[in-house]
Structure formats: structure tokens, C-alpha cells
Amino acid sequence: MEQTYFRKGFGLKAEVKPLIDAEYHSYLVERIRSRGYEDTIGDVTVRLAQEFGFCYGVDRAVDYAYETVMKFPDKKIYLVGEIIHNPHVNRRMTEMGIRFIYPDDQGQFDFSHIESDDVVLMPAFGVTIQAFEELKQIGCVLVDTTCGSVLHVWKRVEGYAKDGFTALIHGKYKHEESRATASQALKYPDGKYIIVRDMDEAMLVCDFIAGRPGHLSREAFMEHFAEKATEGFDPDLHLQRIGVANQTTMLANESLAIGGRVREAFVERFGETSVVPGPDERYRTFGTICSATQERQDAVKEMMKSPPDIMLVIGGYNSSNTNHLAHMCQQYTTTFHIEDASCIDTETGTIRHKPELAADCPELTEVDWLPSEPFNLGVTAGASTPNNKIGEAVVRILKIRGVELEEETPSVQPA
After folding, report:
1. How far is CA 117 from the centre of its chain?
2. Terminal-to-terminal C-alpha distance of the chain
3. Under CATH, which number does the domain 57-147 receive?
4. Which CATH number fits domain 23-55+292-400: 3.40.640.10, 3.40.50.2030, 3.40.1010.20, 3.30.390.10?
């Protein structure tokens, strides 16, 4: 029987590597990295965070996409959503002939036009079990680029459901990853989940569990979490036993803190035995923090021990991990979250940036945003931002300062 599901690529890594290197490499970034992550160019001292940009999961997803195009030159290739949350990378996918399938307002995908002879790429975030089963039924070739860190969380959520625990997921309920993660609970008939965006929302759950004065009524609770929990979710029934998980790109410290507060609520209501393995166990948690997300956040914390004058955070506005990096930096110094190098206008010297954490926050344009005197420029980027986009942004800032510097990247054409 012909194989239709692929998760380990096609053995074409060596063939696509020159093309990927040419399209995403940055001479300038490598130069700064080789000099201890700091280099003074003109009157600007550029400091790179020691962990930034493409993580292993993103690198793998992009690699598999290029391999897929090379493997199936004569087939229609579709992508469920976006391969990663970076506009430049997604544009390249389109230029390579990959067709995007976007979800509706409820996060549902229409696969009715896909045929068995087509190829479908599943993104690094993964897809829901419902979407996966629908694609399997079509019989098309499936190329699964789901990140290993995401799969690790899925296994935990599935395990919670198997053992009768509701999965409490720290994440954004409309995000592809959170939807896919939550769906793992539905592999069991009685599986349940609830998604909390932040500590404030988590405390609504904790207060209900502990029965604290002023907690939401059952009806108010169900109304608040109507779109963020399993259909028919009843807090009186489904908050009796909780297993904590998280969207991998959330703030790691907040995920850990939420888990701690949920634990406290169970101890308050049911006693210490409720949070230890045994017949009375009501609370579980496992390490589901993505190491790449943690490393990039830790690198920002380290840099902020001596904050730069200006911090530039580069990455998609709908990228969760990039937004959180920007939010962290804003606590310490003047920070500009830009989607792409094109946000920096070398003619006018202005910058377009997203000032707030919310993905739908409108851009602002700043004039005279750079200091007039020599300054330190800190740079980091989300896990879906390629090095060439980081280098281009720095080149544009240097040009505004009168320093002409060209990126020296080779040109390679696809075979």
C-alpha cells in the first residue's frame, strides 16, 4: 500500500539546504554572533540576545515544506493555515506554489476541494484531531510538520483525558496550537478541557474550585468560558480533577505560576492529599514548557540585566512567542515590535510598530525614535523569524545613521 503519511521528511535535506541557507542566512547576524553577540558599527552598538530566531521546530517545518515542493513538483500542495507565524516565510511558501487553506471565524477548515492526489502540509502548530481525521479520509498525501514540543503537550492532555482529568490549558483559545492541543482531550468520550488566557482568567477557575467568596456563579462561569471549554462544560462536575498544560509559546513563568495557583486552590478546598499521587489525587502537572521558548525568554532576561537604550523585537504580529518577548522587553526599556524590516523607513527615518500585546492592536508610526547620540541597540526575534529579516532590520537602522552596509548572502536558484 502506498505511503500517504510522512513525518520525517523525504531524505532531501542536503538538496534543499543550499536554497534555504541562501534565502534565510544573514552575513551580518553571523558577524555579530561571532563577535560575542555584540558589535559596534558607526555610532550604534548592536547587541543580539544569545538565543533568538528560528527554533528547531520551525527550522524543521520550513525544511519539510521545501522538501515537499521538491518531492512533488507536479502535484497540488496545500497548507493548513500558516506554516509558522512569519509573513516573509509564508510569502515564500506562496511563491513556491503552495496554496493556503485559511480557517473561518470558528477556526474550522474547508477541505472539500482537496482530492486524493493532492498533498497537504500540516503546520508546526499541528491540526485538530477532527481536521486530521477528515484529511485522512480524503486519502491525500499528508506531510506532518507538527513540532515535537507541541506533540509532548498533546500526549499530556490525552493522558489527562484518559484518566478522567480535565485539561486546563494556558493559551489563546483562538490560536491554532491551543485548538489542536485542546482537541486531544476529545480522543476519549468523557474528555474535557478549558483554556485560560492569563492569570486573571486562571483565577476565575481557582476561585470556583476553592469555593471562595465572590466566585463566579455556575451560570456566569459557563457563559464566560462558553467558547473556551468543551461543549457542555459544567464547572460543578468538570473542575473536580484538573491536569495543567500550556500552549508552548506562552510566557513560561506565567504558565508555571498558573499551575501553582491551581494547586493552591485544590489544597484549600480538598486538602494536601488532593495534589499528591494516590486515590485522592485531583491535581496533576507535568513539564510542558517548550525549551526553545524558555531559552529565548531567558536570553531576554539576561540582556535586561543591562538594558539597551532601544530594543528591537522582530517577528509576526500574530506570533505568540514574539509578542511575549516584546512584552518582556517593554518592562525594561523602550521597545519596538516590528513585523518585518520593511517597517523601518530609511527615507523618512520612521518606524511602524505594534505597541501592545494584543494581535489586533493597530500599528503606530514613530518619528525621531532613535537617540541623537551614540546608543546601544538590543535585538531579539521570535522563533519563526529568519536571520535574514533580522539582518535587514539592523542594516536599515544603520542606514538611517549614515552607515551603508550591504548583506553579503549568496544567490542560489532551486535545482
Report:
1. 31
2. 30
3. 3.40.50.11270
4. 3.40.1010.20
Work out the percent of the chain whose per-residue pLDDT is above 70: 97
* Residue whose C-alpha is closest to residue 351's, from 302, 305, 411, 400: 400
Per DSSP, 43 falls in state T
Per-position b or e across 27-66, b if 16+ CB within 10 A of its CB: bbbeebbeeebebebeebbbbbbbbbbbbebbbbbbbbbb
**pLDDT above 50 (res 413):** no
| Coil vs helix vs strand at 101 | strand
pTM comes to 0.88
CA distance 50 to 34: 11
Q: For 382-405, how does the pLDDT look when each residue is reduced to its tens digit (9 = 90+)?
A: 999 999 999 999 999 999 999 988
**Residue among 312, 324, 410, 306 at smallest CA distance from 85:** 324
Environment class of 388 (CB within 10 Å of its CB; exposed 0-12, middle 13-18, buried 19+): buried
Give the max Cα distance, the chain. 70
Active site residues: 177
Structure confidence at residue 181 (pLDDT): 98
Distance between CA 412 and CA 329 in Å, rounded?
36
